[in-house]
Design a protein that fits this description.
42% of the residues lie in helices and 15% in strands. The protein contains 11 helices and 7 strands. The chain is globular and about 50 Å long. The two termini are 30 Å apart.
Length: 277
């Protein structure tokens, strides 16, 4: 099984991920390829410190899309995982994903997410109380930092253009029956720490959705846009969520208003550095 990790200035968190991936792995079980791209820190040195367990393919270009292509070219096996450097994933989770991808008809898989809300501001906690309950968020592969594919699934992803919302594009490339969220595999995701961090991340998400829609890609997985009916259904089921839905809507409106000032510009990624603290 190959694991491709694009990494742009991830020296602070890359070791955390690699430790988890390798802690229970047998020698040669995992083919891990780290692609430091456009780095100005010690990302490549952190990866190289793991010796033969991790292969390092450096690129001067700061581009996740280009880094994924380089990692793909170097990777040796299937199924194949694409993992963001700022999440936490362990050997057992990788094995559970591999088992799921071996099922007939499954072409893409992702782990269940665990959000580390330690030290997060109350608006961030409030926002995610709603976000994690949305139907598409629960069943989609995006927002997890990990996507695994079979060889056939890889061929479909390889045909996609490089976009900001690469995890969303990967999720929507597969119909519901072709993708699965694996409950026995878990990834720890580190959300934004402050309201400002959250707004920057949501502004980037809005840009990603806009870019995907403008590209006119075939999306067997439908749309991941939040519908008013989804929010209304949440409040009917859980009336105590009403104030949190208000926070969720306020964040969405502000992020889209900020995004509208740069509509059509996909060069500013609004990376959230707080998840790397």
């Amino acid at each position: 099984m190959s694991i491709v990790i694009p990494a742009h200035n991830e020296a602070r968190v890359l070791g955390r991920l690699l430790d988890g991936l390798l802690e229970g792995a047998a020698p040669g079980e995992l083919d891990i390829v780290v692609v430091p791209n456009g780095c100005t820190d010690g990302t490549a040195r952190v990866a190289a410190a793991y010796g033969a367990a991790v292969r390092v393919v450096e690129s001067r270009e700061a581009s996740k899309a280009a880094a994924l292509r380089l990692g793909d070219a170097a990777a040796r096996g299937f199924p194949r995982l694409y993992v963001d450097a700022d999440v936490e994933l362990r050997t057992g989770d990788v094995r559970a994903l591999a088992a799921a991808l071996d099922r007939p008809g499954v072409r893409a898989a992702a782990p269940a997410r665990r959000l580390d809300m330690t030290g997060r501001a109350w608006p961030v906690r409030s926002y995610y109380r709603v976000w994690t309950r949305l139907p598409e968020v629960r069943r989609g592969l995006f927002g997890r930092g990990v996507v695994g594919v079979t060889r056939a699934g890889h061929d479909r992803l390889a045909a996609l253009p490089g976009v900001i919302a690469d995890d969303l594009a990967s999720s929507l490339a597969f119909a519901a029956g072709e993708r699965t969220v694996v409950g026995t595999a878990h990834v720890t995701v580190h959300p934004p720490r402050t309201l400002g961090d959250l707004l920057r991340r949501r502004e980037r998400a809005a840009a990603g959705v806009e870019q995907l829609e403008r590209a006119g890609l075939d999306q067997p997985g439908g749309s991941a846009r939040t519908r008013p009916a989804d929010l209304a259904a949440l409040v009917r089921r859980e009336p105590l969520l009403a104030p949190h839905v208000g926070v969720f809507l306020a964040v969405a409106v502000i992020a889209r208003a900020r995004r509208s000032r740069r509509r059509g510009d996909y060069s500013q990624w609004q990376r959230d550095e707080s998840s790397r603290a």
